[in-house]
Amino acid sequence: MTVLNMRKMKKNQSGTIAAVRANGELGRRIRDMGLVPGTDILIRGRAPLKDPVAIRTPSFTLTLRNSEADYIDVEVA
Amino acid sequence: MKTTIALAGNPNSGKTTLFNALTGARQHVGNYPGVTVEKKEGTCLHKGHQVHIVDLPGTYSLTAYSMEEVVTRDFLVNEKPAAVINIVDASNLERNLYLTIQFLELGIPVCIALNMMDVAQTRGVAIDIQKLSELLGIPVVPTIARSGKGKDEIIAAALEKINNSKNQPPLKVRYGDDTDHALYDITAMVETHQHLTSTYPARWVALKYIENDEQILSLGRASNPELSSRIEKLVEQLSDHLEDTLKTYPEALIADHRYGYIKSILKQGVLSYKQHHDRLYISDKIDQVVTHRFIGPLIMACVILILYQFTFTYSELPVGLFEEFFGWLGNFTNELVPDGLLKSLIVSGIIDGVGGVLGFVPLIMFMFFGISILEDSGYLARVAFMLDRVFRIFGLHGSSVMPYIISGGIAGGCAVPGVMASRTLRSPKERLATLLTVPFMNCGAKLPVFALLVAAFFSEHEAAIMFLITVISWIGALLVAKLLRSTVIKGRSTPFVMELPPYRFPTFKGLVIHTWERTWQYIKKAGTVILAISIILWAMMTFPALPAKDAREFDTQRTKLLTDMGSAQIQGDETPFSHNTPSVKNKEINADLLSVDAREAEAALKYSIAGRIGTGLETISHLAGFDWRTNIALAGGFAAKEIIVSTLGTAYSMGDVDPEETISLSEKLSKAPNWRPLTALSLILFVMFYSPCFVSVVCIAKEAGSWKWGAFSILFNTLLAFVISALVFQVGSLMGF
């Protein structure tokens, strides 16, 4: 088990969110969307220009910028 | 008094679809006071009773960050709807219930409409509705908003809830020992001092203090500064403690516990997966193609082109019909009303003004219809996803592309629907920067001006220059956006975090309602202002009228010519008043008559307020190479950009010039002594960047929520354009062009 920054994850790599280190508006947005520790995610892909990143949770898909993904640590197998 | 029920829920949960199913055509759209968030209200008939329904903006949470959330919260606590129907997407239960929990903590009577049960079932999700209802302690009704299934049941449940409600106590979620302890203490303080409790439940106020909620903090400071600072100190202690022990923030901890609470409910047999196949299978498959590295942008380019074609080609027929109708109305009035000021006011002021307002209606309808398809289907979010990297450089958002394209990013658009298309942006700063810069694009009305000047001075490189003009306007708009975002609309970018909703077929009913309400808003809100301004502009170009002496001078010339014509007819052997075979002599006299009219129009224009402004500005405008004629034409361009051509025609004594047929005018300009290619270039740049036409200005003011921004776009753009033109003209002159 290793903890990886979300920006460093590859396409189709999956894992479980370990920590969301953002506070303020960004932190709230991320949590409101259901990205809290314990959520399973999968990197579904990146936009044609490598940014933003699209991620899948078991029930929906969302996208965030790489600069926002920096605040999320993911535990990968 | 009618019972008010509010609809609330996540974006993309089918909230608006349920609202449409409930209210049908009995709805109207307004704005919440002071903000640009749409307020939708309607009436629903239930067993002979009228129920007032308010569709609250879609939100994920009840924090106070976005305008949508503040509006939702304020409505719930201030207007106190009798009940809230919370639309919950059954296939995405966990995240949707996050909002539900917050409603319950606020202690408002809630019913759940468990929507899209059909989708959930096909995705293999089984939900024990009975159990969910028991565990949350509120009614849960399954609905399928698209077909209207369950809509009577949910209203019945809400009404029953209202009748039986014995003031449901606010839900108390546990947030861990430390937080609970602080929460308990602060709640006690709030209760003893009755702090904000006239509006909010005590525990909720305490919770919001811990969550560092800006709105509650400022309300609290205003109502009881001493108590507020004591509470804030407690929160600070808690915050430090959590940071030391758990390395987390109170608000993060609270969110985690809310999700934990939801998980614990779902695990008690509420949610079960029948089969473990990928539940977003189809959407994922589509996305693999549609957002593919190479194919994605290609498809996007095609979709954008099709939207553009759809908006501007298919709307041609209704636009033409409108034009014809108003042309006919103008002619009709022309014959009915005697010559004079009244006629001029009716024809040139009112009919042209109303025609101008309504002329945009088909464009706006087609644009919104097209955009609604993209928005409702889920594709627009993908466009934002693919283009965000580019637009972000300039402080904008991936969704900014649509307003730009529609405004003339592909030459020939229109800034009015473009400005309105910026509504699809949910980030306030990015949205403002977008709607202030879209008028730099080359709308269809600027094209005749460019065509005229290019034909007169750069005819060898026509296509290349026209392409260059498009490129320059894009660069200019994006750079100005960057400038605005680092000065007047400064600030960190709004978080991009955005759902990529599953693809769905838009419902036709939804599209029609969507399109119509937005179009009607334009007619209602912008229409009256536009009419008033068009009358003012008419007056500026008409008054003061030529002094009687000068007018008589032209009359004398005309009378003389008419006498000549009369004598010519007597001399000739033709039947008097024959219009079929006028003599050569008569043709000449007719031409002279027209030229007298044209010279009179020129003189009248120069004498009017607009003319005086134009002449007065000559001292400055010659820096950019513009004389008084150009100045008046540019002033006229504020009414509508194509008027620049016709005003220039009048100022050069050409009589009526059709913007589509400008060969004679371009010949005249190319021979005029004070015109050279550099002057034309300077004018092209000025027209590209100066003040938007007033219809756009009105739309900008309405969409930005303040006339300040309307005024800003007039002044800033004109100044910017002048600086660019003057710079180009002066440097060009020095270099000998």
Explain briefly what this protein structure is.
Chain A has helices at residues 24-32, 66-69, and strands spanning 2-5, 14-20, 40-46, 53-56, 61-64, 72-76.
Explained architecture:
The complex is a heterodimer of chains A (77) and B (737). Chain A is of the alpha+beta class and 77 residues long. Chain A has helices spanning 24-32, 66-69; strands at residues 2-5, 14-20, 40-46, 53-56, 61-64, 72-76. A six-stranded antiparallel β-sheet of chain A has the order 1-6-2-3-4-5. In chain A, strand 3 and strand 4 form a beta hairpin. Chain A starts with a strand and ends with a strand. The model of chain A has no long low-confidence stretch (mean pLDDT 92). Chain B is of the alpha/beta class. Chain B has a seven-stranded mixed β-sheet, with helices on both faces. A two-stranded antiparallel sheet of chain B has the order 7-9. Chain B is elongated, with a radius of gyration of 32 Å. Chain A binds chain B through residues 20, 23, 25-34, 36-38, 44-45, 47-52, 54, 56, 58-65, 68, and chain B through 60-61, 63, 65, 91-95, 98, 249, 251-252, 255-256, 259, 279-280, 283-284, 287-288, 291-294, 296-297, 381, 385-390, 392, 494-502.
Topology of helices and strands:
The complex is a heterodimer of chains A (77) and B (737).
Chain A: E1 2-5, E2 14-20, H1 24-32, E3 40-46, E4 53-56, E5 61-64, H2 66-69, E6 72-76
Chain B: E1 3-9, H1 15-23, E2 27-31, E3 38-46, E4 49-55, H2 67-79, E5 83-89, H3 93-106, E6 110-115, H4 117-122, E7 125-127, H5 129-136, E8 140-143, H6 151-164, H7 177-192, H8 202-210, H9 214-223, H10 225-246, H11 250-270, E9 271-273, H12 281-290, H13 295-313, H14 316-336, H15 341-359, H16 361-377, H17 379-392, H18 401-409, H19 415-421, H20 428-437, H21 447-457, H22 462-486, E10 498-499, H23 508-542, H24 548-571, H25 584-607, H26 609-616, H27 618-621, H28 628-636, H29 643-651, H30 663-671, H31 677-689, H32 694-704, H33 707-734
Parallel strand pairs in B: 1-4, 1-5, 5-6, 6-8
Antiparallel strand pairs in B: 2-3, 3-4, 7-9
